[in-house]
Every structure is written in C-alpha cells, then in structure tokens.
Design brief:
The chain has 165 residues and is of the alpha+beta class. The chain is 30% helix and 28% strand. It starts with a helix and ends with a strand.
Amino acid sequence: MNTVARTSKKLTHLGAHGEAHMVDVSAKPATERIAVAEGRVAMQQKTLDLVRRGDAKKGDVLGTARIAGIMAAKRTHELIPLCHPLALSQVEVDVTPDAKLPGVNVRARVKVSGKTGVEMEALTAVSVACLTIYDMVKAVDRGMRIEGIRLVEKSGGRSGHYRAE
C-alpha cells in the first residue's frame, strides 16, 4: 500500500492518477493567514565572532541575510513549482547570533490575506537567509551546518491553527 492510501488526508497537489498539479483555490474564501518558520546555521565560535563584529569580507552578514529572506519569501512561487503567487502583506525575518549554538538563529513570520497559506513562503525565507549566511562566511568556515528548518506555527484557513511541539 502506498503512502497516499494510508494517510487520512488527501494530498491536494495530486490528481486522480497521481500527477502533480496546482490546486484550484478560486472557491476558497480569503482569510488572514500567518506562518512562522525557523532554522539555524551552526558555525565555529570564531566565525560567529566575525559575523558579530561585521568584519566579513562580503559585508554585513546579518543584514544581508535578513533582506535575502524577505526577498525569497516574495519570490517563493518562482522557486517552488506548485506554489501560488501571493501578495504578501508582511514578511519579518529575524537573524539572531547565538553564542550557545554557536551560530545564528533565523526566524521568519509571513502574513497574507488570501486563499492559500504562507507556510512555503516562511520556510523559503528561512532557507535562503541561512544559505546567505553560509555564502557570506564560507571562506572562513566550510564546516558550517544549516539545521532545523521547520514550520513552527501556522494559522488561518480551513485546516486551522498548527503549532509544532
């Protein structure tokens, strides 16, 4: 038995014969939808110190990662084939150094009033912000790890509220 047959919910991006397609959301009501995602870039302490000081050769790592995450959220439909283009009403990306990791924590909150959710936009924002951090300091620390990218919370729409444990 395949995975689709075992799940209690139907996968919305699959047609009757298993082919991928974009979901028709035209009949759905527009509601306020919010998604929050997180991830992190683990690095050596000396690399984090460089990031905090703002001494990276490529410039302001934290500010650039924040802007990259915002830009990525707005372009998610161009990157993920079956995502709808959305007129996002808000994108917040927090990029916070963490000495305990050591590394940088990234959190994105995306909001829209629309017919489909913004989970992919929040996840894309976090992913691209983390990749930007890696790119900007990879010359001094190739062993960095991008970790823990996940949906933390979502609200709005027919499926209601979700919060990760």
